[in-house]
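User: Could you check the structure of this?
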Amino acid sequence: MNIHEYQAKELLAKHGIGIPTGHAALTVDEAVAAAEKLPGPLYVVKAQIHAGGRGKGKFKELGPDAKGGVRLAKSIDEVREAATEMLGNTLVTIQTGEAGKQVNRLYVTDGVDIASEYYLSMLVDRATGRVAMVVSTEGGMDIEAVAHDTPEKITTIVIDPAQGFMPHHGRSLAFALKLKGDLNKAAQKLGKQLYHAFMEMDCEMLEINPLVETTDGQLLVLDTKMSFDGNALFRHKDIAELRDETEEDPAEVEASEYDLAYIKLDGNIGCMVNGAGLAMATMDIIKLNGAFPANFLDVGGGATTEKVTAAFKIILADDAVEGILVNIFGGIMRCDTIAEGIVAAAKEVELDVPLVVRLEGTNVDKGKAILDNSGLPIVSANDLGDAAQKIVAQVKEAA
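Assistant: Sure, the predicted structure tokens are below.
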């Protein structure tokens, strides 16, 4: 689960980490009121969307010469002008794709006198089962170019969760950022605070870009992104409440309500599978046969007829879907349950695209009988290869 910048900063502040003073706003008047609470005379107005590259982004409605989603304002009037242009308009960045994201929230912060900018992030390194702290002296909007062109300027510090954050990790962080004196000590302290915040909140990723050194010798988090392990949110109800569903794909939001793992893709073959590994294999074999999957959808091992019906309807709600492949291996999941859900959903939505179903495992004969007796134009397949060939052929024939 992702959250907005202002939410992430509020969480970091609770762990004693320095951030500039700022306030969130949903309307132009709220943005102006937020600025009036700040000392000024410099303000920063920031669009709040779940994507990076906001500063270099462009608003679809404002033309190519308009400013991006992070703007400096030297007066309250300029704050009002920036808020008016941003709210309700669509910001396109390198991470949003051409569709962009509508800006529904702003964050108005106090201006900061910057001496230097750094990059610092933490993430779970699944290859080693440890936490990786990635740091660089080259902070700012072009960190991707640094990673590509000068990777030697990026240092990775690996932390074993069984051992925790040790003093030598802090020293390595400060050394990598080339900090001395009081700033060196501040960086070591910051590294420890960030690690504890990362672990306590079950983060998947915490990125600070930039971490800035101010002209008066402070280290402040100027911008941050944070994401969390969805499987651990039951331990953090306060964090779960920060979810902004307007930033997510509506189909993915609906799928989460039924405990379905769904991700929309750009293809034309809808997939419904039980098990993540089998779902990946299904998508691969669709591509092998010359088509592209429209989604990843794992119904899990304990799906009910209601859950399967919901999954089927979510797939069919995608206008790009020209055919559906259902691939079920019934271990915990029973094939007859899947079949009942398929039939119920197909009748409810008036199925008008080709449907190929491959069933194997528990109650497979009952499942196939339910499909055969449904009166629906469902094509059965014997194995995964056969299923992929049939759905691709069916879609081509229907085109």
